[in-house]
Amino acid sequence: MQAFALLLDTLSTTPSRNAKLALLTEYFRTTPDPDRGFALAALTDGLFPRLPLRRSLAIQMEGRIDPVLYALSRDYVGDTAETVALMWPEPDVPPVTPGLAETVELLATAAPADVAETLGSLLDRLDARGRWALLKLIGGAPRVGVSARLAKTALAEMGGHPLAEIEEIWHALAPPYTDLFRWLSGQGPRPDAAGKPVFRPLMLSHAIEETDWPGFLPEDFAAEWKWDGIRVQIAAHGTHVRMFSRAGDDISRAFPEIVAAYEGLDVLADGELLVVRSGVVAPFNDLQQRLNRKAVTGRLMREHPAHIRLYDLLIDQNEDLRALSFRERRTRLEAWVAKHRPLLSDVSELVPFSSREDLDALWAETRSSGIEGLMLKRWDSPYLSGRPRGHWFKWKRAALTLDCVLMYAQRGSGKRSSYYSDYTFGVWREIAAGSKDGAPRGDILPGHELVPVGKAYSGMTDAELIEIDRFVRNHTVEQFGPVRAVEPKLVLEIAFDAIFPSARHKSGLAMRFPRIHRIRWDKPAAEADTLDAAQRLVEAAEGGAIAPL
Amino acid sequence: MRSAAVVQWLHPTDRGLYCAPADVYVDPARPVERAIVTHGHSDHARAGHGAVLATPETVEVMKLRLGADGAGRFEGAAYGEVRNLDGVTVRLVPAGHVLGSAQVVLEWRGQRAVVSGDYKRAADPTCVPFELVPCDVFVTEATFALPVFRHEPAEREVGRLLASLARNPERTHLVGAYGLGKAQRVMRLARDAGYDAPIYLHGALVEMTALYERLGIALGDVRPVPLDAKPADFAGALVLCPPSALGDRWSRRFADPVTAFASGWMRIRGRIRQAGVELPLVISDHADWPDLIATVMETGADDVWVTHGRDDALVYELARRGRKARALSLVGFEDEGE
Fold first, then answer.
1. A86, B148: Cβ pair inside 8 Å?
2. What stretches of A44-155 adopt beta strand conformation (E)?
3. Residues of A with CB below 8 A from B148's CB?
4. pLDDT tens-digit series, residues A59-115
5. Over the Cα atoms of chain B, what is R_g?
6. In 3D, which of A271, A273, A270 has the Cα closest to residue A286?
C-alpha cells in the first residue's frame, strides 16, 4: 500500500507527461503481482464501484475524530478524504501496514455490514499518505492527473508493444491483470480476447492543410458531413454489447437504449453518437448532458434521445473487413444496415461532389447548416488504426470569433509555471437599470460591465506568451494565489468552434474549443464585443440556422 | 485564581500586547516608545520604535533588515539575563523558532506571564531549542492550530530533497524558503545529511545567510546566483530563493527546474496546487497541532491567550481539556510567509 500511496502522491505533483510515464513504468516494473494489477485497475476503470464510503467513514469517525474539529479542518482543507486522512489519530505503535492486494481483498470480501469496520481498521494501520491513497482508491477516480490512456501508454512502453495492442484486448481483461503483465514482461503469450466484445483502436483523420490540396483528386475521395457528437465504436456479440469512446473507455452504461438496440447482433461498427430529435441533430451541448452520468433516468433518455450515425463496418460476424477498401466496406455497411435494421441508427450519407469548387461551396454552408464540417475519405483506404497520413481528412467549418477583454490570468504548470498562460476573458454586458452591484468597470464602457465567457490557454506563439505575461504583471489589480485580476485593457480575439448556453458561467454562455486567435494590442477595450453579440452566435437548439435576434 | 489578575497588568491593545506597569509592548504592530521584540520576522519586528529590547541575534537581524536607525535604541539581552522594567521582571528564553527567537517571561507581584511569540518544539540545528517555562498565563500563536497539521521530521523532508537531486541529476532544484530561518535551516540540514556541493542563493537571501554565518551557523560553500547565470551552469544544482521567486520571471534562468517549497502549508494539497510546486517539503518553524497542545498543557497555565492564527480550533480543544483559553485577535500578524 505504501508504494502505491507514494506513486499517487508523487504523480499528483508531477506536471510533465514524460515524468509521469517514467514513474508509472517504473512502478509497474518493480511492483509484484497482484499489487501492480490492482494499482492499474485503480488508475483506469476503478475498483469498488459500490462501497458505501461516506456512510462507512461517518461511522468510523465517531469516537476517533471530534466533529467540531473535523468541521473546522474540512472547511480549511476543502476535501473530505484528505481531511480525514490527515487528522485520523496516529497509532501509538507503528503498525504493520497492509499491502495493496491485502487491502483490496479485505474490502472486496467484507460483508456489507462489516465494510465500515474493515475500513476503520485499515485506516488504523496506515500513515497519512497511505490513508489518503486508500480513501482515493475507494472513492473512484484518484484524480492525480493520470488518464486511463496514460496508464495504458506506460504499459505499452514497459512491454515494448504498440498502445493499440493493449487497447484491443483491454476490455476482455480483469484485475489484477496477471496475464497481461506476464505478456508485457515477455513471460507469456498475449492474452486472448476471444468471444468477448473488445475495442479496436479507431482510424482517425488529419486536419486538411493547404499542402494537401495540390495532390487532391476528386474521384479518389468520398465526402461525408462531419457530425458534431462523439466518435464511438459499437461491439456486439450476442447479448454482450459495448459502446466504446475514441479513447477506448466503455461508455455503455450511460446509453442503455443503444445497448438494447444492438443486442442479438454480431458486429463491430464505427459511428458518431448524437442526440437526435425527430430526425434533427441537436447541438453538442445536448449530448454533453448525457455524458459522464452515473444514473440514467427515463426523463433524460426521453429529452436527450441518443442516436448512432454509422460510418464504417469493421467486423461482420467473424469476418474482419478492415483490410478491405473504404468503398467495399461502405457497400457492406449499407447492406448490413438494410438487412438488420438496428434501432436508433442510420448511415452517414455520402455527399456527392465532382470538383474542388463543389466542395468549397458545400464547406461554406456548413456553419449555417449547423454542421461541423466535411470529412474526406480515400475510396481505397483500408481501415487503419491510429492516425495514418493521407487517408482521411477533416475539414472543419471556419471558426467563430469574438473580441474579448482579458480579465484574469493564471500561472501555468510545469514549464509554464513562471508564465501567466491561462486566460479568462469576458465581453461587455449592459448593467440592468436600478442594479447596484457590479459596475466597478462601468467607467470604461459606460453602463456596461465585463462578464466572463471563457478560458483559453493556447493559440498564442511563445513570443506572444511572453508579451501577455508582461502585460499581466504590469497591469495587475489584485492577486489571489496563482491568479491575477488585470486591468480591463487588453483585447484578445478569441476563436472558437461553437458557443452555447451554460448555467455554470455568469454570462450564461460557454465556448467550445476557445483559443487565442490574435492579440489586439491596437483595439481599445471599450470596442470589444458585447454579450448580445455573443448570444447571437448561439446555434438554435433545433439544429440548423443561427438563432434569430 | 491568580491568573485572572494578570489582566490587570497585561492586556491586548490595538498596537499589540501591552504591559502597563513596565510601559512596554511586545511585538507591537505600530511604532511605540518601548518594545520587546520576540524575533526578527517582519510582522513581529517593525521599524520606528523608540527603544527595542531583544536578544543580541534579533538585534542584528533587525539592524540588517531595518537599518541601524530602525529603532531609536537597540538593547540586547542574552537568553536568561534578567531585566527590571519599573518593577516588572523581564527575561528572554529560547523559543526554538529561528536564530535569536525568544519567549518573553514577565513577572509582576508574584504572577508570571509568558509571551511565546512564534515557537516550535522540533529540533533545529540553527537555533537554541525551546525552553519550557511554567506560568500562570501563556500567550501562544496558533499558525498551524488545526488537527490536520502534523509536521514531518525536517530531516526526512530534506532527505526527500536530496533523493530527488540524486534522481534528477540534470535538473536544477529550486527551493522556495522563507529568508530568515527556513532557508538556513534547510541548508544546514542538507549539510548534516552529507550534501557538500555548493548551494546557490537568490540575491534576497544572501545577506541574511551571511549574518547567520557571522553568528556562528556554518553553512558550507554558499554562493549567490551570478547575474550572468546560464541554465547549463545549474544542472543538478541546489538553489534557494524566497517563495515568491518560484513563480517569478527570475526563475526562468533555470531550464526545467524541479520547484520545491519548504513550508508547513505543504501538508495541504490545495496549498501545493496553489503554489504550483513539484516537490512540496513539509518543513515548518512553527509548532504543529500536537506540539501546540502539549506545550500549553506542560506550562501548567490555567489561562491561555491565543494571539494569531487558527484560534477557534485551539480555544475549543483547550476548553475540552479543561483549560481556559481565549482569542486575542491581535492584528498585524501574517502566516503566509511560513
1. yes
2. none
3. 73, 76-77, 83, 86-87
4. 999 989 999 999 999 999 988 899 999 999 998 888 889 999 999 999 989 988 899
5. 20
6. A273
Identify the residue whose cell numbers are 500549553: B296
Segment A216-241, tens digit of pLDDT: 999 999 999 999 899 999 999 888 89
Please determine, for residue A439, whether its predicted confidence score (pLDDT) is greater than 70.
no
Joined grid coordinates for residue A468: 501577455
- Residue B313 to residue A415, Cβ atoms within 8 A: no
Question: Is this model's pTM higher than 0.90 or not?
Answer: no
Amino acid making up residue A529: D
DSSP assignment letter at A210: G
Give A-chain residues touching B320 at CB under 8 angstroms.
66
**CA–CA dist A497, B175 (Å, integer):** 42
Do A482 and B276 count as a contact with CB atoms less than 8 A apart?
yes
Q: In order of start, what are the domains of chain A with their CATH numbers?
A: 2-138 (1.10.3260.10), 206-396 (3.30.470.30), 400-535 (2.40.50.140)
Number of neighbours of residue A448 by Cβ within 10 angstroms? 21
Among candidate residues A123, A141, A101, A115, the one with its CA nearest the CA of residue A52: A115
Residue A180 neighbours by CB under 8 Å, 6+ apart: A37, A155, A166, A169, A173, A191
Contacts of B319 (CB under 8 A, 6+ apart): B325
The top-level CATH class assigned to B3-148+286-327 is: alpha beta
Helices (H), A406-529: 462-474
Q: Is there a cis peptide before residue A342, judged by omega within 30 degrees of 0?
A: no
Q: If you search the block for the grid coordinates 458531413, which residue do you land on?
A: A225
Paired residues of B53 in beta bridges: B36, B75
Interface test with B, best of A14, A65, A73 (most B CBs within 10 A): A73
Interface contact flag, B248 A418, Cβ < 8 Å: yes
Nearest by CB to B269, which of A66, A82, A87?
A: A82
CB contacts of A415 in chain B (<8 Å) are 256
| Tens digits of residue pLDDT in B38-53 | 999 999 999 999 999 9
* CATH code at B154-281: 3.40.50
> How confident is the model over B87-95, as a mean pLDDT?
97
Q: Do B66 and B35 touch, CB atoms closer than 8 A?
A: no
User: Cβ B313–A87 below 8 Å, yes or no?
Assistant: no
